[in-house]
Predict the structure.
Amino acid sequence: MAFELPSLPYSHNALASRGMCQETLELHHGKHHQAYVTALNGFVEKQTDLQGKTLEEIIHFVKNKPDLAPVFNNAGQHWNHMLFWSCMSPTDGGKIPGKLEAKLIEDFGSVDKFKETFKTAATTQFGSGWAWLIVKADGKLGVTKTPNGSNPLATGEGHALLGLDVWEHSYYLDFRNRRPDYVTNWLDRICNYQHAEDLMRRR
Ligand code: MN3
């Protein structure tokens, strides 16, 4: 079974009034994410040891193997973008539900402190990569960042609740080179914290 590009859970212009325009989503979902899926399927077609594995199994199988880095990056990017699309909401972007809010305050000191920590991770990731809110093995929330197509599943740092794409393709049309503004806007107006809380409750 080939991997498939999932549909966006909202229309391409659904986030336009919140700082992510239709062209950004059309290119990001229809071109960039599609390209990762196509490349991944190409690898799976050629390499029998990748066949019959789930996406998560492929990521674990190829991680830390330098000769399989292209497979890792494309599989990782497919996983990362599927989470990313669910981490955005055209209706409730920026609204933090009660249980998650209480947990953020417990583990970071305040919601502002969480946002500051997340923003630092997202803006100091040199070059392309991702910033994450995770649940760590000890049950506490944490913030981390990864380069390129890597993610907390591969690093084993924790279970991802939020993933923010900080590749330039995710913000250049809307914010040009101003990654910090993209991150602040995303946290305050786009981020689907309800989805993060749902993932947290399922842990
Ligand atoms: Mn991307």
In short: The domain at 98-202 is CATH 3.55.40.20 (minor pseudopilin epsh fold). The pocket of manganese (III) ion is lined by residues 28, 32, 81, 165, 167, 169-170 (CB under 6 Å). The chain has a mean pLDDT of 97.
